[in-house]
Amino acid sequence: MNMTQENLKAYEKYLINLARDRDVVETAKEEGREEGVFMTAKNAIVEGLSNEIIKKITKFTDEQINDLRNEMNDNAML
Q1: DSSP letters of 10-69?
Q2: pTM, whole model, 2 decimals?
Q3: Shortest CA distance to 62 belongs to which of 52, 72, 74?
Q4: How far is CA 58 from the centre of its chain?
């Protein structure tokens, strides 16, 4: 491919922006998945499910689930 310096720089800038945009999208997807799992755990707690079942569904640890339970209880008292 025969490009001018100006076109080559523009193409390199395009590739850099494309990679950055892809990273932003992937980060947003991951954050969305994490938020979904978090909401699933909260809903499971509200429904009275045990830590064992919540662990199977979310892959959370007992500590994470208990922290979430405590946070939800603290917020309910406000």
Answers
A1: HHHHHHHHHHHHHHHHHHHHHHHHHHHHHHHHHHHHHTT--HHHHHHHH---HHHHHHHH
A2: 0.71
A3: 52
A4: 13
pLDDT, tens digit (0-9, with 9 covering 90-100), for 19-75: 999 999 999 999 999 999 999 999 999 999 999 999 999 999 999 999 999 999 988
Provide the token pair at 50: 């045990």
The pLDDT tens digits of the residues spanning 2-24 come to: 889 999 999 999 999 999 999 99
